[in-house]
Amino acid sequence: MLQDIQSYNSKLTPEDESICSNLATIIDRGLKQAESKIWHGHPVWFLEGNPIVGYSKQKPGIRLMFWSGADFEEDELNVRAGKFKDASKFYTTETEIKEEEIMRWLQKSEAIQWDYKNIVKRKGVLERLK
C-alpha cells in the first residue's frame, strides 16, 4: 500500500481506518497492474490512466466506488441515476466486507470500462473502452 494511502487511512477513526486498510489490501491484490494515488482527496486506482475504483469517507460510511460499476449488473452495488456510470457500496464495519464479492467487482472493473480519462476533452461525453 502506498504511503499516501496509508496516511489517508490513518487520519480516520480506528474502525474506518480498519475498513479502508482492508479495502486497499483487497484492491491491491485484485488489480496488481493498477496505479494508485490520492486523487481529489481520496485513494483511487487507475488502469492506463483511467480511474477504476476508489474509496472515501462519507456520512453514511466508507464508500467503495467503481467508476464503471453501473454496468456490472451487481445487486449489491448502488447505481446512481445520472450521466455517469458509477456504482458504489457503503461499509460501516469491517465485518460487512466480503472479499470474494469485491474481487468479482474488480474483475468486472477490468473488463467493463468507460473512458473517464478523456471526459473533459469530450465535453462530458463518456465512451465505452471495454
Mind explaining what this structure looks like?
With 130 residues, the protein is of the alpha+beta class. Helices cover 29% and strands 25% of the residues. Strands 1-2-3-4-6-5 form a six-stranded antiparallel sheet, with helices on one face. A hairpin with a 7-residue loop joins β5 and β6. α1 runs antiparallel to α2 (14-30). It is globular, with a radius of gyration of 14 Å. The model has no long low-confidence stretch (mean pLDDT 91).
Short descriptors:
130 residues, Aspartate Aminotransferase, domain 1, 3 helices, globular
Topology (SSEs and partners):
Blueprint: H1 3-10, H2 14-30, E1 35-39, E2 42-47, E3 50-58, E4 61-66, E5 78-79, E6 87-91, H3 99-111
Antiparallel strand pairs: 1-2, 2-3, 3-4, 4-6, 5-6
Helix pairs in contact: 1-2
What is the succession of H and E elements? HHEEEEEEH
Give the overall pLDDT as a whole number: 91
User: How widely separated are the two ends?
Assistant: 27 Å
User: Could you name the CATH topology?
Assistant: Aspartate Aminotransferase, domain 1
CATH class type: Alpha Beta
Low-confidence stretches: none
Kindly state the percentage of residues in helix. 25-40%
Class computed from helices, strands and strand pairing: alpha+beta
Shape: globular
Biggest beta-sheet profile: 6 strands, antiparallel
